[in-house]
Amino acid sequence: MKNYTIDELLEIMQTLRGENGCPWDRAQTHQSIKKSMIEECYEAIDALDSGDDHAFANELGDVLLQVVFHSQLAKERNAFDFQSVVNEICTKLITRHTHVFGEDKAVSAEEALGQWEKNKKKEKNLDTYSAMLCDVPNYLPSLMRSEKIQKKAGSVGFDWDSLEGVYEKLAEETEELKSAVNSGDSDKIEEEYGDLLFTAVNLGRHLKLTPEISLTKASEKFIKRFARMEEFAIADGLDLAELSADELDALWKKSKKA
């Protein structure tokens, strides 16, 4: 395989967007491809977790393509270019790591993170703690966004001292959801369900877990057990859609034990 340079990648992207380029690439805008950036990041994480380094490198290339694509689009409207993106990240890495490139000190990962957050707050003019919460991107997956918001709130001491407090809050939110369901008020049900999920994220955080990863693993476990359950049904000449709730439950329990 030929070794390409970043300059050649930029040239390829410019050609694709050019007069004799690709009709699809030429038709795209920042808005039309923004979801691709999210999808490519997730695919890169999937490749990382698979342990396949070639697939991981391939997917990281797709992530890089999104950066190059947006940079080309911005260049065409005289906003910024790829060099501007490089300048921005290099400047950020230097100004946020004042314990490396400046006079600040940090001897642990926690202290280094503290310096990063302090410098970030200063650079973004986040002059209140509430502004720090509002700075968490809306586009993050809800579990990740909730976790980030909670961590920032916890950094000023607004947090539970022990797991027991979180368990009590989880029980309280569960009861409030039950009450809302009994009321039949759909808006209230949604609100209380959201509160319950938010508290569940807090529990994961206090258990030193990443809620997004924990839920992903639970989803994968469910898929594997469901597939095993269907295998058992097929082996017995059965169709899951034609089974009763009790029969499905029996197969599910069998799948869990397998």
Short description:
The protein has 258 residues and is mainly α. Among the domains are: 6-80, Orthogonal Bundle (Helix Hairpins), CATH 1.10.287.1080; 213-257, no CATH class. It contains 13 helices and no strands.
Description:
The protein has 13 helices and no strands. It has 258 residues and is an all-alpha fold. Among the domains are: 6-80, Helix Hairpins; 213-257, no CATH class. The chain is extended and about 65 Å long. The mean pLDDT is 95.
The CATH class label of the domain at 6-80 is Mainly Alpha
Range of helix content:
over 70%
Instruction: Name the CATH architecture of the domain at 6-80.
Output: Orthogonal Bundle
Overall structural class, as computed from helix and strand content, comes to mainly alpha
Radius of gyration: 25 Å
**CATH superfamily placement of the domain at 6-80:** MazG-like
Residue fraction in strands = under 5%
Q: Give me the strand/helix succession.
A: HHHHHHHHHHHHH
- Low-pLDDT runs of 5+ residues are none
- Distance between the first and last residues' Cα: 45 Å
Q: Overall 3D geometry?
A: extended
- Main β-sheet description: none
Task: Work out the number of β strands.
Answer: 0
* Secondary structure tally, helices: 13
Average pLDDT taken over every residue: 95
CATH topology of the domain at 6-80: Helix Hairpins
